[in-house]
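HOLO CASE FILE
Compound: arginine
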Amino acid sequence: MSERLWGGRFTQEPDQVLEAFNSSIGFDIRLYREEIAGSMAHCRMLAKQGILTEEEAARLIEALGQIQRDIERGRYQDLSPYEDIHHLVERALVERVGELGEKLHTARSRNDQVALDVRLYVRGQTEQIITLIRELQKALVKRAEENLGVILPGYTHLQRAQPVLLSHHLMAYFEMLQRDVARFQDSLKRVNVLPLGSAALAGTTFDLDRSAVAQELGFARVSQNSMDAVSDRDFVLEFLFCAAVTMMHLSRMGEEIVIWSSQEFGFVSIPDALATGSSIMPQKKNPDIPELVRGKTGRVYGNLLSLLTTMKGLPLTYNKDMQEDKEPLFDTTDNLKASLEVMASLVGALEFNKEVMEEAAGKGYLVATDLAEYLVGKGVPFRKAHEVVGRIVLHAIEKGVELDGLTLEEMQSFSRHIEEDVYEWLTPSRSIERRSLEGGTGHQSVKMQIQRAKKELGL
Ligand code: ARG
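Model generated. Tokens follow.
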């Protein structure tokens, strides 16, 4: 380990076991951009307040820029000499500008520094994730628009329930993702608070200009309590929760694609380029992408639970336990972003087997509710109508036909209210047409959903 950040009061060198166990550089190296941006802002402010000279600040800022380039060029292959990203940057500064490098830590602690880095990171990732969600929404809206008119069964309990437009089904996912975007956007209000200036836990004796740093780094506010600021990881938890909900949505979508691509359903085909084979069964074509998305959802949930559990027993303020926030955070961002990307590709490329869908929508008495509603229109109370139609369905099942395969006389033997016009209520397309109420599966309603969605997406 190159010179520690805390050697003075120690009489022994750190044990290697401690060094390896304590170090976070292996993963927090990812925060180098945030660390350097935060350091530059701190540095400028120290000069503005007369705590550093302008000349000192200029040298430090130049060196910080060089360190960033060094990291990006892969100069730091061996990370073992460093405890964490804060240590690495400070050591690199000292290497470049000598003792001056040690001045940057004035009025700052790793405790407020790491809180700052993680906030900047979460903010950046949230913005990227929102963009990726938007891309997936675009793919859904495009497919919904292309396939307007395609009918398939809608399900409850995975039993055929009522006919719906494929576009309506696709737009349901658009809505889920809308809420995900809104949730992430809202969470940014609580991310976008500057913790720097809290120092270790109690604030600092130096006359800092916290607002100037907040402004430079694009924070809306500065934290109001230094003890809270260094021990708060709510914003990470909230991010992990938002990610978990988004993954849950992707997982449900994945599950449907898995089911729909089975031979039993056959509603969709996954193009070869996005499917995989089996090493033993030559005929297999497997939906690995949606399965993996479904699988990754578990670990993203686990990451949320992991940090909630880490935080639950911590006394104020900073505790080293909190170093454990980073791996779940990084793992979540990686897996969520990758899942959003692959799902956008998959949704864009799925082949919809329209005939199979439409045939399925025509079988299984999916218009039974329509027949009950027809009877209501003829003055029959709904509960009674439901009972009558139940009996008609049973009769049709016994006869082995759909409802429109029954003769008028047959139906009239169950209810004298049934007339010739009943057949207009017994096809899937008519069933859909009658549901143009806002939010329903009728063409008008779905067109409106698509229109609003396109406006929302700037299309
Ligand atoms: N690597 C540490 C973390 O990720 C940085 C903060 C260290 N602070 C301390 N008081 N030891 O949490």
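CASE NOTES: The CA atoms of residues 34 and 124 lie 10 Å apart. The chain has three domains: 10-103, 110-145+152-206+219-353, 363-449.
CLOSED: yes
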